[in-house]
Design brief:
about 280 residues, six-stranded mixed β-sheet, 14 strands, globular, binds ligand LP5, binds manganese (II) ion
Length: about 280
């Protein structure tokens, strides 16, 4: 695992696992409203917006953007571009659904692509981590401390899920990806749909425990990166979990709306100095 330099950030809004898709315009609407409220329209906008993967349900290549000009994907690009233009730095780290997001998406949105894992450093004065929604509200004090936060999507840490890890190894191989991206868009969309269905079948036969983070892997990662805390998504088990040496890991919530478009689960984690 390569150690890239930590990114210094004053305040950050972190979100993941929104799973935006064309069939759920209500989900997109709720997410975009939340995003605006906590970025452009906020009284104190964060310095950075950090998205920890699975922003979309499936990404088969950046030419997916050329598909439909008014699609959810296109609206997403508009929102991300506007946030960047408002002076908020935007970061994206790949999930297992959108690992093919590439330079085309970055150019269309102004987002900076991060490697998994990445460390950010936040200088806390009066403090805090606070959930905007979804997980129970929590404030903590760490006066004058630089908090080193390891960021990951989390799928790599689910090492007991060996069938997934072999699948992951295959689809993260650059040669495999080049061959996949050379296929026509319609064929790639069809393959993704097939894989989604296959994944649901596979998951129904897996024990919940093996689809969770391996505690020792999380602890090793945090120690290796000299981090104080780990933030990830993927498992859809939002909360704050203890790690050895009084460290912890935060799991960001996935997003869901009910049939009326009301948000059932979602939100993110906000690091900033609260008065
Ligand atoms: O995402 P989630 O939570 O539902 O499940 C994941 C793991 N599944 C996946 C697969 C994705 O859902 C597939 C969709 C990808 C969309 C983007 C596609 C773009 C490129 C296409 C790449 C081929 O990630 C699931 C984990 C679970 O998280 C919990 O961690 O268990 O893992 C699986 O289910 C994987 C299976 O165990 C193995 C899959 C074998 C599939 C074999 C089909 C081969 C067909 C190849 C066609 C090219
Ligand atoms: Mn995931």
């Amino acid at each position: 695992m390569a150690n890239t330099p930590a990114i210094p950030i004053r305040s950050a809004l972190l979100v993941s696992d929104v799973h935006l898709n064309q069939d759920q315009p209500q989900l997109a609407k709720a997410f975009f409203a939340w995003l605006n409220q906590h970025t452009i329209a906020a009284a104190q906008p964060p310095q950075a917006l950090v998205i920890l993967g699975d922003l979309v349900d499936a990404w088969v290549g950046d030419d997916q953007l050329a598909n439909q000009p008014s699609s959810v994907d296109a609206q997403l690009c508009d929102h991300l571009r506007a946030i960047k233009q408002a002076g908020i730095t935007t970061y994206f780290l790949h999930g297992n659904r959108d690992f093919l997001i590439g330079d085309g998406f970055a150019a269309a949105t102004g987002i900076t692509l991060l490697t998994d894992p990445t460390v950010i450093e936040i200088q806390l004065t009066t403090t805090t981590a606070q959930t905007t929604q979804g997980i129970s509200r929590s404030k903590e004090s760490a006066q004058g401390k630089v908090l080193r936060i390891a960021l990951s999507h989390g799928d790599q840490l689910c090492t007991q899920d060996t069938t997934y890890q072999s699948f992951r190894k295959q689809v993260r191989d650059p040669q495999w990806q080049a061959a996949f991206l050379a296929k026509p868009l319609a064929e790639r969309l069809q393959i993704a749909q097939h894989l989604r269905a296959q994944s649901e079948i596979e998951k129904s036969g897996k024990a919940m425990k093996i689809m969770d983070i391996t505690q020792a892997e999380a602890e090793q990662l945090v120690a290796h990166l000299h981090a104080d805390t780990l933030i990830h998504g993927h498992t859809h088990r939002p909360g704050r979990y203890p790690l050895q040496d009084s460290k912890d890991r935060w799991v960001l919530p996935d997003w869901e709306v009910d049939t009326t478009g009301e948000l059932i689960r979602g939100g993110g984690l906000y690091y900033r100095d609260w008065e």
